[in-house]
Structures are given as structure tokens and as C-alpha cells.
Amino acid sequence: MTTTASEPRVNNLSNQAEATKRVLLLKPRGFCAGVVRAVDIVKIALDTFGAPIYVRKEIVHNRYVVSDLAKKGAIFVNELDEVPSGARVIFSAHGVSPAVRAVAKERGLKVIDATCPLVTKVHVEAIKFAKQGYSLVLVGHREHEEVEGTQGEAPEVTQVVSTVEEVNNLVVPDPDKVAYLTQTTLSLDEARDMIEALKKKFPNIVGPHAQDICYATENRQTAVKNVAHGADLVLVVGSKNSSNSNRLVEVSQNLGTNSYLIDKAEDIQPQWLNDVDNVAVTAGASAPEVLVQEVIEYLQTKGFGSVDEVEVMPENVRFGLPPEIVQAIKPAPGAVTVGA
Ligand code: SF4
């Protein structure tokens, strides 16, 4: 699903003749297939079953998306004990551990699972390696919900590492029987360094067939890498708790281009734009396009009259809805559809 970057395609969206300051609007940016699916699941559940619908944790890590769904009737909770017995609850795109699924079952909750299929893939790998007797090293940020969920598949044999130092300090029962997995939203460069350190420490370590970092994380980072050198500033639209958005800021900063994470246009500090002629704008995988457009409009009021959309690679990924939703919206047997 990852596409190799070729020569970027530039599409001029707005060009004021006198403009000397430019916006480079990166593509792909914003919503990934897992986020589109998760947000659709909540909306369809609200339409089909009616409010309230409970959602465990933020459905995706974006304040605007969460508050918009809350206005429509979704109730966000941190843990399942806040959900009334027998109620309908949605698991977020970041996934849950088997322990959480067990609590939902005990409480008689009607579960709709919005876990991204690419997160589920990592869970399946964790189960497979654990069954084969491997000690598991999960490269990721231990406070992130996705990591909690994946670790929960095999908690007795899984250790989470976030730094090369932690890799060097790892102790396992059998150094020849170690497998690694990664969080889906890591920095590609950081993950590469960590995996290299793991291979040095455990020469016989095994890993997934294809890397766990997802296509959307990779594509958005590749787009920043392609454009950051030609920009004076990179603005990343995304919330503070969005892992892949934070990684985009780091990618830019590591290339020497100043970068900030903003939830919305109002977060832009005017002094950031001092002596800036080219500002690149992108968005994390959970940030909606409406917020990106508000940022562009704000920049236009500050003299950035030319807007070039720079498409570094095409992206066209879609995921199907989970069976609980497909079943719920299926027409009743014998129902007649009117119209074309
Ligand atoms: S960022 Fe990647 S893993 Fe996370 S929801 Fe999007 S596609 Fe899935």
C-alpha cells in the first residue's frame, strides 16, 4: 500500500500575481483510511442505533473530530466501567487489549470495533510470535493506547522499548528466541535505528514480513522529507496527543526546518512567520481537511498569496466497515429499494 515517491506533482491552487510568499500544501496529508473508517463507524452507529453511543477513549487523536462527534451524541469514556451495562460501545482506532474485550463481554456491552485493520495486523503478529515461544520486543511509546493494546496480547512475554538505550538494557530468557514489532505511527528513521540496535544485540531476532509502520505514517513523513528543504517553516495540523503528527514535526526539525504542531489556525503565532517566504503545510492522519483549509485562509491574510499543492505520491486506500456495522445497515430480507 505504500507508494514510492517520484517527482512531486505541483498544482497551483491560487496565485496572486504580486504574491512573493508561498504556501506548499503537501499531499498526501490528513485523514488516513483507518481514521475515515473509525469516524464513519461512529457516525453510522449514531444514525442507525441513535444516541447515546459510548466510545472508549478518543476515537482518533484529534480534538476537533472528538468534539464534533460528541455534539452528535457520542459519549467518550476512558474506561468501560463508565459505560452502563448492556450499552453499545465503540473501541477506538488504536485498538484494545484482550483484557478490555473480556471486561466488555462480562458487562454485556454491545461492542463495535473500530480498530484500524493495520493495528489489528500487529496484534495478530504479536499473538503468532508469542505462540511460537518468542520473547517480544515492541518498539513504541509505552503511554500510547495502541502500544497498551498490542502489549496486552502477550503481556508476560512483551517488553516495550522507546530508545536505543532501552534496547541495550534488554534482558530476555533466550537471546536466540526474540521477535520485534513496532507501533504503526513511529518515525521511520527512529524505527530504523531501533531495529538496527535490536539486530546488533540479538543477531537471530525475527520481525514482521512487512514493516508495521503504516502506509499513511510513511507517506506523510516522505512528503515532509521531500519538501522541508525548500520551506522556511513546516506547519503540521494535528493534536498534541497524535503520535503520527508529532513525528511529522520531528522529521522536519531533523532536516533543519523549523516546524510547529497546531490544532487550528488560531494557534499560529504571528512571529513564526517573520522572515518566512515559503511555508509548507501538512496534517497528521487524524486531522480533518477543514482545519487545513482554515490554516491556508489565515496564511493568505498574512500575504501568502500563492498556494501550490505538492503531491509527492498518490494515495488511495480504503478499508471496509466492521461486521457489526455492515450487519446493522444491511437492508432487511425482502426489503424493496426504491429509485435508482
Ligand atoms: S495512522 Fe495508520 S495505523 Fe493509524 S489509523 Fe491511520 S492507517 Fe491505521
From TrEMBL:
**At which positions is [4Fe-4S] cluster bound?**
32, 116, 214
GO molecular function list: 4 iron, 4 sulfur cluster binding; 4-hydroxy-3-methylbut-2-enyl diphosphate reductase activity; metal ion binding
Which family, according to UniProt?
A: Belongs to the IspH family.
Q: Provide the protein name.
A: 4-hydroxy-3-methylbut-2-enyl diphosphate reductase
Catalytic residues in the record: 146 (proton donor)
Residues where dimethylallyl diphosphate binds: 61, 94, 144, 242-244, 286
Q: Does the keyword Transmembrane apply?
A: no
Which terms are listed as keywords in the entry? 4Fe-4S, Iron, Iron-sulfur, Isoprene biosynthesis, Metal-binding, Oxidoreductase
Cofactor annotation: [4Fe-4S] cluster
Q: Tell me how the cofactor is bound.
A: Binds 1 [4Fe-4S] cluster per subunit.
Which reaction(s) does its UniProt entry say it catalyses? Answer: dimethylallyl diphosphate + 2 oxidized [2Fe-2S]-[ferredoxin] + H2O = (2E)-4-hydroxy-3-methylbut-2-enyl diphosphate + 2 reduced [2Fe-2S]-[ferredoxin] + 2 H(+); isopentenyl diphosphate + 2 oxidized [2Fe-2S]-[ferredoxin] + H2O = (2E)-4-hydroxy-3-methylbut-2-enyl diphosphate + 2 reduced [2Fe-2S]-[ferredoxin] + 2 H(+)
Q: Which domain of life is it from?
A: Bacteria
The enzyme's main class, written as a single word, is: oxidoreductase
Biological source species:
Terriglobus albidus
Read off the InterPro entries from this record.
LytB/IspH
Note the NCBIfam families from the entry: ispH_lytB, PRK01045.1-2, PRK01045.1-3, PRK01045.1-4
EC id: 1.17.7.4
Tell me the pathway: Isoprenoid biosynthesis; isopentenyl diphosphate biosynthesis via DXP pathway; isopentenyl diphosphate from 1-deoxy-D-xylulose 5-phosphate: step 6/6; Isoprenoid biosynthesis; dimethylallyl diphosphate biosynthesis; dimethylallyl diphosphate from (2E)-4-hydroxy-3-methylbutenyl diphosphate: step 1/1
